[in-house]
């Protein structure tokens, strides 16, 4: 789930289709200095676990995996110039804000299982991407705004 989400999000940020996006793992020390500074600033107090340089047409994006002590994984999307584009934090059900939890209430119970959530932050905006395994072997993906409105939803069958 996480890798596909990151590549889809990266393609969206770069204004490209998924099929024209190419990613390669690189050492942090091979990133340009402005990119390293941004990564260092936003990875704290975590540890950089991996860097992928994502190429689409003539644009470059760095997707950085950060392991955070006592918290879920963090992904940073940094432009080739060092601008922070997005932060994706893996969070638990208990970490969701009250309006988001209220929007999830109809999906909890009845054999449905909460799979995980990501807080996606960019341009001073925040969305919550939440996944459920529904009782009828269907995966439910919800995108919820800060005030609890369901912005997008997608269902996928497991069979």
Give an overview in words.
The longest helix is centred in the first third of the chain and has 13 residues, at 2-14. The protein contains three helices and nine strands, in the order H-E-H-E-E-E-E-H-E-E-E-E. A hairpin with a 4-residue loop joins strand 4 (74-79) and strand 5. A nine-stranded antiparallel beta sheet has the order 1-2-3-4-5-6-7-8-9, sandwiched between helices. The chain has helices at residues 2-14, 33-43, 98-104, and strands at residues 21-26, 47-56, 59-67, 74-79, 84-91, 113-122, 125-133, 138-145, 150-157. It starts with a helix and ends with a strand. It has two domains: 2-89, Roll (Nuclear Transport Factor 2, Chain: A), CATH 3.10.450.360; 93-157, Nuclear Transport Factor 2, Chain: A (Roll), CATH 3.10.450. It is α+β, with helices and mostly antiparallel strands.
């Amino acid at each position: 789930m996480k890798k596909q989400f990151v590549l889809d999000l990266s393609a969206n940020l770069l204004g490209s289709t998924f099929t024209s996006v190419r990613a390669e793992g690189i050492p942090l020390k091979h990133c340009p200095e402005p990119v390293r500074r941004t990564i260092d600033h936003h990875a704290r107090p975590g540890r950089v676990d991996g860097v992928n340089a994502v190429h689409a047409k003539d644009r470059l994006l760095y997707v950085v995996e950060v392991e955070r002590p006592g918290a879920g994984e963090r992904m940073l999307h940094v432009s080739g110039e060092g601008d922070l584009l997005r932060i994706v934090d893996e969070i638990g059900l208990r970490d969701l804000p009250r309006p988001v939890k209220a929007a999830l209430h109809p999906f909890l119970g009845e054999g449905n299982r909460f799979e995980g959530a990501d807080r996606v932050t960019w341009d001073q905006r925040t969305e919550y991407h939440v996944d459920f395994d529904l009782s009828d072997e269907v995966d439910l993906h919800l995108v919820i705004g800060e005030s609890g409105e369901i912005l997008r939803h997608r269902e996928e069958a497991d069979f």
